Amino acid sequence: MRLDTRIAVTGGGGFLGSHVLEELARAGCTNVVAVRSHDYDLTHEDRVQAMLADLRPQTILHLAAVVGGIGANRLHPGTFFFQNLMMGSLLMEHARRAGVTRMLNVGTICSYPKFTPVPFREEDLWNGYPEETNAPYGLAKKMLLVQSQAYRQEFGFDSSNVMLVNLYGPRDNFDPDSSHVIPALIRKCFEAADQGASEIEVWGSGQATREFLYVADAAQAIVLALDRLDDSDPVNLGSGREISIHDLALMIARLSGFTGRLRWNASQPDGQPRRCLDTSKAVERLGWRASTPFETGLARTIEWYRAERAVGTAKS
Question: Which residue ranges of the chain lie beneath pLDDT 70?
Fold first, then answer.
């Protein structure tokens, strides 16, 4: 990747995007612009065309997504499907028309079938339907992989694809209506401690497992993928570590200083039973593996949130 190429980063104002912009700067990229939704709503064709005409990128790093936890996915399946599909599909179509020479799409582990054998291998991606609560989001992102492969075959458009597990880290979204499990539990623990509550509610049975990737590690992998991948086959990006929601909740409570009881609400869904990626392709093709120990990254996230709460600027 030429360091002076003009790179447009969709979602550049978001959680992951802010860390990717920092990683691009560390890599020596000096001509980078963040594409923010309040300037260019990429679900509208004319705004996609306007962005490309105004910014004239040579490379696009597509991070933008409408995302949330299980609750948000259940409430807004149509919104999540439409917005994620349209922004990615319109962007790829008009990028190739505009002469963009390189595009990296950042997909999701939610695209995998509900009962994928663990660890998830890229070859298993089409062997079943995704878990129901996040299928619309996962399938919308999966269609961008199909589009990428089809456009490479027909038009020679140079686009590549990576698939991320759940991220966590400083600057995450702590809004209780849309956050993922780690920030949601951190916030619950802090609020319970503030109120002197003796327990917090945790959705599900606690038996489901998840894999989490520290956001700075993810940013490093994405920049490497932008530089090194030369086809459209998906590449998993994850830590390779699986943890149950039960053990995760206990760890968050301990690191947050909450000493009360965890009350499991089994009437709420667990989501996909297990999630853990085979990341061997990332090692082989990118020379990358996650380097931040999970408890270390979790402690950094909690300390960031503690500091933000102290000055009243936590994203909520």
Answer: 1-3, 313-316
Backbone angles phi, psi at 237, to 5 degrees: -125, 115
Say how far apart CA 246 and CA 4 lie, in whole Å. 47
CA distance 157 to 102: 7
Same domain, 124 and 134: yes
**Domain extent for 70:** 7-167+213-237
Contacts of 264 (CB under 8 A, 6+ apart): 201, 202, 204, 205, 206, 246
CB atoms within 10 A of CB 103: 26
Q: What is the pLDDT, as a whole number, of residue 9?
A: 98
Half-sphere exposure of 213 (CA within 13 A, CB side): 28
Cα dihedral 300→70→165→243 (10° resolution): 70
Buried b (16+ CB within 10 A) or exposed e, 283-303: eebbebebebebeebbebbbe
Which candidate, 116, 204, 99, places its Cα nearest to that of 158?
Answer: 99
Instruction: Indicate the burial class of 110 (C-beta count within 10 angstroms; 0-12, 13-18, 19 or more).
Output: buried
User: Residue 199 falls within a domain, yes or no?
Assistant: yes
Instruction: Report yes or no on 279 lying in a domain.
Output: no
Choose, from 40, 112, 137, 168, the residue flagged as catalytic: 137
Q: Are residues 72 and 197 in the same domain?
A: no
Q: What's residue 80's pLDDT?
A: 94
What is the C-alpha to C-alpha distance for residues 5 and 295, in angstroms, rounded to an integer?
37
- Which residues sit opposite 223 in a β-bridge? none
| 23 and 100 co-located in one domain | yes
Active site residue 129: no
Whether residue 314 is contained in a domain is answered as no
Shared domain check, 37 and 93: yes
Query: Residue 313: inside a domain, yes or no?
Result: no
Rounded Cα distance, 103 and 157, in Å:
8
Which DSSP state fits 131?
P
Domain count along the chain: 2
Distance CA 262, CA 260 (A): 7
